[in-house]
What we know:
single chain, alpha+beta, Antithrombin, Chain I, domain 2, Alpha-1-antitrypsin, domain 1, six-stranded mixed β-sheet, five-stranded antiparallel β-sheet, 13 strands
Amino acid sequence: MKAKILFLLVLVIALLFGSCQKEPVAPGPKPIELDQKSKSLLESDNAFAFEIFREIVVPEKNSKNIMISPLSISLALAMTYNGADGETREAMENVLHLQGLSTDDINKSYQSLINAFLSVDPKVIMEIANSIWYRDDFSVEDNFLNINKTYYDAEVTELNFSDPASVDIINQWVSDKTHEKIDKIIEVINPLDIMFLINAIYFKGTWKYEFDKNDTQESPFYDETGDFLKNAQMMTLEGDLNYTYNDLFQAIELPYGQGNYSMIIMLPQSGVSVDSLVNNMDDNIWKTWMNGLYKRTNFRIFIPKFKFEYEKELKDALCQLGMGIAFSDLADFSKINPYYDLLISSVKHKTFIDVNEEGTEAAAVTVVTVATSAGPSSEFRADHPFIFIIKEKYTGAIMFMGKIAVPETES
């Protein structure tokens, strides 16, 4: 009898103790500890992000959806920057806001940031891949390749660019790294192209607070003048969300996974256009706005589902920001190869995004094409007037010299 009473007493105490335990707390955002150099590089990246976005958005007016990945663009240009020298290097530093950081600082900081982004939230898929592809008969400085392999984990491949299959090989890499969301970045390889530096980013995050598909309804969507544009699939959610507002816009923050990644949706106030809002944005203002976020409880939101692709050649935008020398005959990429006159012929950017009730899937690819502005060609064809010289090898004595304006042969 005493044993039964003792057992019941122990059972009651165990139950009481268990009932006092708190429910397990869902993990929140995991802090990323950065050194001062990495913080400085992030500020540089964000400053560049708003500038390049402004250069793209404003000229496009309101005609179409736009999306870029500033991180993808920065990483592709950072790899290219390792091959630049002289005024070209300075111009890239100015546009990318890298002043005050050594090359070693930049590369090590990007390495640290990439590692942090890939591992910070196990509930979010974040993948970053880099690659360098170069013509197999073109010599590349070992130091340039080793830096990009070490700090950017770049896959380096030499290919026969004269073989049409090379285009498919590069595009297949892009498709694989973006989970087939972007299946092509290169259309053709031109005879003067000697190198492609490519960054690919893939993101898939589930909303921390998912939308109920049953609540999604067709609802009107209007243009900036208030005129009806189309019906959209409008998702709705009620919960505790970060929010802010001012004379220009109101904004909400929708977190993914454990909260490290989130989407900020900025809705312009009546009479404010998206273009004017973009014109007001820079890194400092962005920080001020984000510091103004506060939690709204039981807040109901409506946002449309959307899915689209975007493609843009960034040469004009980068030239407008001050990087024109890198695209000109004055470019100096001697750290890639000191014996050729190299320049950037193209910076092509592609993005994809799908926002639905479950979360967001996004991908981006940036390819920097490096080409020869002059120098040895892949073939020699004497199909226009030329000079000929006959000389003796050891003395250097010239025996004959002449000019062929029109080839003639004795009949």
